[in-house]
Amino acid sequence: MTTINDVARAAGVSPATVSRVFNGGRVTPERAERVRRAAARLGFAPNRVAQSLRKQRGSVIGLVIPDIENPFFTSLARGVEDAAQRTNLSVVLCNTDEDVDKERRYLDVAVAEQMAGVIVAAASRTRTDLSALAARGMPAVAVDRRPRGALVDAVLVDNRHGGEAATEHLLERGYRRIACITGPQGASTSEERLAGYLDVLREAPGHGEERARAYTRYADFRVEGGRSAMAALLAMDEPPDAVFVANNLMTVGALQVLAEAGRTPPGFGVLTFGDVPWAPLVRPSLTTVELPSYELGRAAADLLLERVAGTSKPLQTVVLRTSLRVRDSTAGPADPVLTPPLGAPAPA
Amino acid sequence: MTTINDVARAAGVSPATVSRVFNGGRVTPERAERVRRAAARLGFAPNRVAQSLRKQRGSVIGLVIPDIENPFFTSLARGVEDAAQRTNLSVVLCNTDEDVDKERRYLDVAVAEQMAGVIVAAASRTRTDLSALAARGMPAVAVDRRPRGALVDAVLVDNRHGGEAATEHLLERGYRRIACITGPQGASTSEERLAGYLDVLREAPGHGEERARAYTRYADFRVEGGRSAMAALLAMDEPPDAVFVANNLMTVGALQVLAEAGRTPPGFGVLTFGDVPWAPLVRPSLTTVELPSYELGRAAADLLLERVAGTSKPLQTVVLRTSLRVRDSTAGPADPVLTPPLGAPAPA
DNA sequence: TCAGTTCGTGAAACCGATTTCAGACCAGGC
DNA sequence: GCCTGGTCTGAAATCGGTTTCACGAACTGA
Fold first, then answer.
1. What pLDDT does residue B49 have?
2. What is the CATH number of the domain that holds B11?
3. pLDDT at site B218
């Protein structure tokens, strides 16, 4: 390892001068050039560990996400990375597996490694604790989910609006018994998406909140949870004819169960929240509430970079909109006799 | 930040003693207890940056992968993480996007951050350069792909065997014109899988190497590459009736094109290398050469941890076997009159 | 010409741990 | 009583940078 001292000796200057050359201090051009040449010749690259120790701040930012296998988060990660790329900070990914303990360990590592900052998609709204970071003065940005009481910047999705748009769409297409499979109770994302669903059905003639709640199932945002929730819905006395599923993984589970039961879209309406990757493979194509996952990461990184640079702006919350992408899985119910879709010709 | 000095003062001992308490030096039990209590009371956690600087070795290991959106690598990452979990090392993920420059930057970061070691799934066999790591004495393990000439431990997959098994299976099921979509030329994985395919067809009556090569297309391991390769194959004068696709993403592209052309499995045989996630959604289910992705990560981490611990074993290469998982997409050709599947009754 | 700036520079302190080294202390053997 | 050997301890050096501080030279304006 060639150090700053080696370079200094080779260039006939003091280490302080070398440091100044690389950090924008004032150095006469002639000396600076000598230093640069010596550095290049020796293949000098500053030891980031020593830098971090002295500056009391590292040059990596941590991105803490709950599920690396979910394309939503990988796309988000890509957004973060692209934003960081333009600075000299590197991004490292920490996967918590929705496990609060694992998450806490990673946050401890972030502190111990003196990371420049952290972007956190919290594993739990109530149990994720960002206060240790704040106490150490480490900038943090919450993304997708805002942990309760955390005094941090946040970049969120307008989940409620997404839930409303989804439900309205299913109503318009003539589905009569619209179910909802949402995530765990207590997760802000699931609660909000559910709230959007309830908002719409509460006011819809023939539906109402009570009925909507009867058609609601809580699951765990995972494939298996989607399976069992869908199975439970199909086992009802009066099973639903459409379902709004509050995340992409659960949709996969739901689709499996539907296929096994022979109830395929669009006869049985399926609308999913969040892009299902490989969606092009699914027949019929899936109507989706699209999440701006990449932009979410991008925006979070921009916010964090500002804080790292030392801005003293008041805390911000940015909310990004979802958009409904209509495809074939919600074309209309199998049995239009009972419930003609809007604008459909009357049955013969 | 409470430091080792704060703890020392609070416990009435020297910093050296505090360090010894936490690193297994000899300290009288009574003092050790005093130190531990003081540390707990002050919420002391050693500053990893300072540790790294002094020890000349950090406590994170870098996992450098080419495509974080590919479930193969996320599963591999999980294997690495689980193995590291049992030590006090943390894993950070670096996504290179198959981009050699980005990869080089990450490797530089690994050196500058004095990481304990790196596990690399190389972006390029010829252009990925691990020598800088070796020069700095940083342990490295190549996984899935071995960069040319790198003197490192490696954990690989028996791609050739997988390619053979796949091709044999398609032959046995009665397909007559078996194509292969493989990855980029020069990538060891694509070359080996192709080699397995050629091995089998070279000896197969009615096939032979020349014909097999005519049915071979090189693509880029991505969805779009799979699309265009499949389209090119279908446009041939005598299009294939089955395809062996050398990775999961390209299979997605190929399936799209096949669906659009109305040529669906198993009438058109499709066999994919590597688990397609969401595979349960695809009808018919896909016959697959399964890759031991998790175990790959696990084994690579174990190897790396040994090196980090300072073993002086000679370099190792571990090769893990693939296994053929037969499902419905290779049930037999659409037109068994021409080519009765083995054991099928003669057509009436 | 002289006081007052400004600029460039290197010596030295500093970040927070680990580790070496030398000394204090004690027990045991002669 | 003295020497030997072992154990425990703290002072100080060290890792590789950044930053403060003081100093000398050059420049400015009167």
1. 97
2. 1.10.260.40
3. 97
